[in-house]
Amino acid sequence: MATINNNYLKLKAGYLFPEIARRVNTFAQANPDAPIIRLGIGDVTEPLPVACRTAMTNAIEDMGDRSKFKGYGPEQGYAWLREAIATNDFQSRGCDIDASEIFISDGSKCDCGNILDIFGHDNTIAVTDPVYPVYVDTNVMAGNTGDANDKGEYGGLVYLPITAENDFTAQIPSQKVDLIYLCFPNNPTGATATKAHLQAWVDYAKANGSIIFFDAAYEAFITDPSLPHSIYEIDGARDCAIEFRSFSKNAGFTGTRCALTVVPKTLTAKAADGSDVELWKLWNRRQSTKFNGVSYIVQRGAEAVYSPEGKAQVKELINFYMENAQIIRKELTAAGLQVFGGINAPYVWVKTPDGLSSWEFFDKLLTNCFVVGTPGSGFGAAGEGYFRISAFNSRANVETAMQRIADKFKV
Amino acid sequence: MATINNNYLKLKAGYLFPEIARRVNTFAQANPDAPIIRLGIGDVTEPLPVACRTAMTNAIEDMGDRSKFKGYGPEQGYAWLREAIATNDFQSRGCDIDASEIFISDGSKCDCGNILDIFGHDNTIAVTDPVYPVYVDTNVMAGNTGDANDKGEYGGLVYLPITAENDFTAQIPSQKVDLIYLCFPNNPTGATATKAHLQAWVDYAKANGSIIFFDAAYEAFITDPSLPHSIYEIDGARDCAIEFRSFSKNAGFTGTRCALTVVPKTLTAKAADGSDVELWKLWNRRQSTKFNGVSYIVQRGAEAVYSPEGKAQVKELINFYMENAQIIRKELTAAGLQVFGGINAPYVWVKTPDGLSSWEFFDKLLTNCFVVGTPGSGFGAAGEGYFRISAFNSRANVETAMQRIADKFKV
């Protein structure tokens, strides 16, 4: 009799985004004329850079020419893309990362989940709270947690609160943890990490033999030149950190699909016999066996992000969304709301007014302003009383949404 | 101290295709002028159908138009692609499969490995021998096996030999197994399964509460109209089978990346408390959490496979490769070799002559004929003494390779 992975039954049924979709649909059906504006999910809205489109169109032509046709590519990605990334994203910032340490994939979400394949089930795992739900759910699925309590916290995980009280800084835990998820610029709070803060994490990890999973999906939105874009800007990070990056949010690839994961060859973890095993070798074997590479066409599109035209067009996209973020910050502040983030990240993290819960504020914004955001409590217990507004939308939609909120909340 | 997944250390280092690459490279370096022809790896060589290229070029234009731009798509794939597949690949052959039961992915290799995520580690697993190595290796990684013996067989797995002695038919095991991998038309042997044979498997699975993983990646190469293309052509299969399909081999998508997995909503397996759990719900949750869908551009290319032009162009591709297979069969037979497969599959399975081992024959073909094939023993212990020749190459290369073999082996 075939049996299931019972860990799946521990997952809480009410996942955040389906619940948002349910409430929005119910409201929209009852109010078919309400001009709803969605600032909830972190999905881009503006066209793909023309440099990427041109490169992909040319790649499709290659696929029609027998002499240029591409069948199976390297599971790790094409060398020309890995080289472009190594040079532009890492070496240009002083990071000692080689192209061979970069693995191209179809999504950071996939890699953040799949990376657990190469680790043991006896690791103690730390996540921030609030946190991107995928980190937690994939650990539940892998059997790395116990059951959830009433607040939605899973047994066995170490939760590190990031709230206004600690200035949205992920505190170094007093206990020993083996795997640590960090995301800066942070989703959902928009908070950032200074070099000194990341140095403290690297020092902790090296002292404890821990591995940091560093999610840098939003690095392109950093405006403060003193902030690190990569954890490999920190001394010692090559010995303790894996970094996840994506073309989703900088070049608008959420529907095009390309990402990358950096696994330095100097990283090791312990086997059962106490020996040190290179994580690069394990991840390379994992990807070679369970993955077949990203579409040649899409990899050519990603490569174009590093052309002079591509760089200029990506910068323009980023500036556009960050202007949205400035408008959101300004208007919400003028409306008397307390806001965080939105300066080095495309997310504004709002303290709910009048002691409203995250979901109460969600319902109020939806029914009174026809604006959809994301309840902070959906990202973890410490997100209760907060609310995420995304800067990913058209200028007109952002301005209209903010005007409606200002009209309702301004005293 | 972070620990690794120790199961990875059980994997045999000498994976088949890297070892082939190593031997070919060594030979090529010593003989730089040798005109090597590769009939080893099962990778397509001919251009993508023009219908697919046109559809993808149009999709890139959509991505440049704000009103048609696509961000995150459904993790399960777009409805228009799932509908086209349900109608054309399944309902047209009388299979009761709904579009909602079809999950679009970036590769069958990924899905064949990832499917294990939703199953328990206490299942008894059966594979044929020889077999596509990914089925075995992903079970090793997941901790579903013991160590390998000298023949490369992993403890805990049930091996079902398919050889000339049993007419390349996967025998129903006498013991109870919970998960069974079947691939027809078969990689590597090119063997097929009749409806009666698959009915026996479905009856066995239903009687034992087993789940069949049916890999139909090569169904497009079936020429015999009596053979089933899908396991869902068999009564009862909706209650016991998951099917994997791909656009890689029919439409030449090995470098473009698109595949699909069918999980009927009627499938269940046992939870620890003895209850029946719907596998569709688990797989849907797995894909929603650990996957973000296939590129919109690529999905539009896959959809075009079902247009009238696409269907005609795919048929032409298949016919081309199958003519290659006929040439291979004819010439090898004329050279006195015993051949199997190649009639309903793009692989010809050759009995090595003169009692040569698979690797001895590999070396002989490489050094004497400059032709690369795949040693049967690389697919499992029962593949020893066999050799796989792929029909994926240009007509000129196939004819030249066969001429060289005929010259060496003809008596």
Automatic annotation (TrEMBL), chains A, B:
Residues 36-405 form the Aminotransferase class I/classII large domain. The modification N6-(pyridoxal phosphate)lysine is found at K249. Keywords: Aminotransferase, Pyridoxal phosphate, Transferase. Pathway: Amino-acid biosynthesis; L-lysine biosynthesis via DAP pathway; LL-2,6-diaminopimelate from (S)-tetrahydrodipicolinate (aminotransferase route): step 1/1. InterPro entries: Aminotransferase_I/II_large, DapL/ALD1, PyrdxlP-dep_Trfase, PyrdxlP-dep_Trfase_major, PyrdxlP-dep_Trfase_small. Homodimer. This is LL-diaminopimelate aminotransferase. The lineage of its organism: Bacteria, Bacillati, Cyanobacteriota, Cyanophyceae, Gomontiellales.
